[in-house]
Amino acid sequence: MPSSSALKPGDVIVAMNGKSIQVDNTDAEGRLILADALCYAATFKPKITIDLATLTGAMMVAIGGAATGVFSSSDRSWAAIESAGYYTGDRMWRFPLWNYYSSLLKGYSGFDLDNIGKGKGGGACTAAAFLKEFAPPGDWIHMDIAGVMKSNGEDGLYISSGMSGKPTRALVQFISNLSEKN
């Protein structure tokens, strides 16, 4: 441990929205940072919030580099981002935000949430359920890009080996489609 003030398993921290979180896994720090970023985003009262992160190795295990793993609180927003992905060639695959995953993070005494939860498997779904606790009101999309961020050069004609840029094209198309509707 670098110092006595370093975060360690079992520590409890308080997020920007006042929820207390027990840190059982210090390697799951990305979701802690993203949780406060989502709380901060809420101060702007967005109609839709989209976050992207290379959040879990579990997403890579689930679908590899075949598609971006997407979690959405809105069927309408999911359909729009899926359509943008189809149009641009950036595949999207929706994963569930079932209450089951949220329940794995709750029910402890002394704090509101655990940063990894109890149970085995479903790591990407549990991470998204954790983030959902901090998402602003309105539509929310979480994209776990762990599997698609890097290409081996076999992803098609327009993506060479190295950082893929996925799902940038789909996001630009999604925003373009939204602006055309307004």
From TrEMBL:
Domain Cytosol aminopeptidase: residue ranges: 25-32
Q: Name one Pfam family in it.
A: Peptidase_M17
Which terms in the Gene Ontology molecular function aspect does this entry carry? Answer: manganese ion binding; metalloaminopeptidase activity
Give a yes or no for keyword Secreted in this entry: no
GO biological process: one example: proteolysis
State the superkingdom: Eukaryota
Alphabetized Gene3D superfamilies for the sequence: Zn peptidases
Q: Which UniProt keywords apply?
A: Aminopeptidase, Hydrolase, Protease
User: Can you cite an annotated GO cellular component?
Assistant: cytoplasm
PANTHER family the UniProt entry points to: CYTOSOL AMINOPEPTIDASE, LEUCINE AMINOPEPTIDASE-RELATED
Name this protein carries in UniProt: Cytosol aminopeptidase domain-containing protein
UniProt source species: Aphis glycines (Soybean aphid)
